[in-house]
Write a structure and sequence with these properties.
Aspartate Aminotransferase, domain 1; 2 domains; mainly alpha
Length: 188
């Protein structure tokens, strides 16, 4: 929502009981101890208002950028696949996999060009393990390992998308040329 860092909201369904992570103080009906972050709470509330006002425009814009990114990433390279449904997905999410190479290598190559991506789940990005979500969808370990995920935001432009599309063929071809898993016809 582009609100202040370190603040969030938790919706708890009626009848669900949760335990606090930290005890003491009794704030937030005994669920959280410590002084409330009043500036953060106010900032979060304002960010929620703005997000609601901008949501429809952002969804339309991000969906167009997402669809162009998917098309541009899949079209020029063989053995490139979209993870998930082409349109029944979040408007800001593109997860693709490239056979014969690892996501971590793509991540490093893209970072050197100023592009940030994830090669695993966002919550486990400090590990080299493939995304448990991709594994749960039925991908093999090596398929999930060859995946990267792009997240688009409201400040991204079509120029950003075209920049990434332009980078990927040379990155993928270079990495495949080095990989012992790549078939001979793709290395030439």
């Amino acid at each position: 929502m582009y609100g202040p860092k370190g603040i969030g909201a938790l919706y708890v369904k009626e009848g669900i009981r949760i335990e606090p992570l930290f005890h003491g103080g009794g704030q937030e009906k005994g669920l959280r101890s410590g002084t409330e972050n009043i500036p953060g709470i106010i900032g979060f509330g304002k960010a929620a208002e703005i997000a609601e006002q901008e949501m429809q425009n952002n969804v339309e814009k991000l969906t167009k950028l997402r669809d162009r990114l998917i098309e541009g990433l899949l079209e020029p390279l063989p053995y490139t696949f979209l993870n998930g449904h082409p349109t029944n997905r979040l408007p800001d999410n593109v997860s693709v996999r490239y056979s014969f190479i690892e996501g971590e290598s793509m991540l490093l190559s893209l970072e050197m060009s100023g592009v940030s991506v994830s090669s695993g789940s966002a919550c486990a990005s400090k590990t080299l393990e493939p995304s448990h979500v991709l594994l749960a969808t039925g991908l093999k370990h090596e398929e999930a390992h060859g995946s990267i995920m792009f997240s688009l935001g409201k400040d991204n432009t079509i120029d950003d998308v075209e920049y990434v599309i332009g980078l990927m063929p040379s990155i993928i071809n270079r990495l495949r040329a080095m990989s012992p898993l790549t078939p001979k016809e793709l290395r030439e």
